[in-house]
Write a structure and sequence with these properties.
The protein is of the alpha+beta class. It contains 8 helices and 8 strands; from the N terminus they run H-H-H-H-H-H-H-H-E-E-E-E-E-E-E-E. Strand 4 and strand 5 form a beta hairpin.
């Protein structure tokens, strides 16, 4: 396979996820010996993947199997999915590299689709609704992670939680992931904030390990904050921040 000189700089995510073919892997590993920027980027992708996977790990409830077996007879089987013939083979390598960035969202899908996988719903309509919501969430997260201008930063909260923020100016969105986040306690929740010129504006809630899209406008924000607030959140922070970190530049 012939490689353009600029191709190597697009392969870091795919390499971190083991998504390169043998030829591409050899090419990229040769490139890593002389490119500090790509070594750093590959390391960051590996760390992000590990944290996302840890954040969305989920143990199904003990009753899950019985519920699945009871519901399965009433679920309509979908027709087989037949892939459309490729009309642009030249795009395959590019799509695989772009898909590697999307693969960072695969660990998010484990949580997003977890509720569907264990089938804790009462009927097929609930399953379908949950599947649509899960797919929408996954699409939103994937769009940020796959954006050409996606940037990543890692942090550690005062309570020991490990955090990752991936931001994209093009998407005007940011994804926040928390791992090892202690339970907030009765009547409490964790609230995210965006720092706009010193004013902290609500950016969503998170009460356990997982991944969320920050609400608000991250393009104009300088940083992200995390506080412990009453259930339902607060219009302004009421406690000292557990985390304050700059948005990735």
């Amino acid at each position: 396979m012939k490689h353009d000189a600029t191709d190597a700089h697009t392969l870091a995510a795919a390499h971190a996820l083991g998504a390169l073919d043998d030829d591409e892997r050899t090419y990229f590993e040769d490139h890593l010996r002389t490119c500090e920027a790509c070594r750093q980027e590959a390391t960051e992708f590996e760390a992000t993947t590990a944290r996302l996977a840890a954040a969305v790990s989920y143990t199904p409830p003990a009753a899950a199997k019985a519920q699945v077996m009871a519901a399965i007879d009433g679920v309509r089987q979908l027709p087989p999915r037949v892939p459309a013939p490729s009309t642009a083979p030249v795009l395959r390598g590019f799509l695989r590299r772009r898909a590697a960035s999307l693969a960072l969202a695969a660990c998010v899908a484990a949580a997003a689709l977890g509720g569907v996988a264990v089938w804790r719903t009462q009927d097929g309509q609930d399953l379908e609704r949950q599947a649509r919501q899960a797919q929408q969430r996954l699409d939103e997260v994937s769009a940020v992670l796959a954006a050409p201008d996606a940037r990543t930063i890692h942090g550690k909260a005062a309570n020991g939680a490990l955090t990752t923020v991936v931001a994209s100016d093009r998407q005007n969105k940011a994804v926040f992931t928390a791992a090892n986040l202690p339970a907030p306690g009765t009547g409490k929740t964790y609230q995210l904030w965006l720092d706009h010129d010193g004013t902290m504006r609500p950016a969503g809630l998170i009460d356990h390990d997982g991944t969320v899209i920050l609400t608000g406008n991250p393009a104009d924000a300088a940083g992200v904050g995390l506080t412990l607030e009453p259930t339902g959140g607060s219009p302004q922070p009421t406690t000292d921040p557990l985390l304050l970190m700059a948005l990735p530049a």
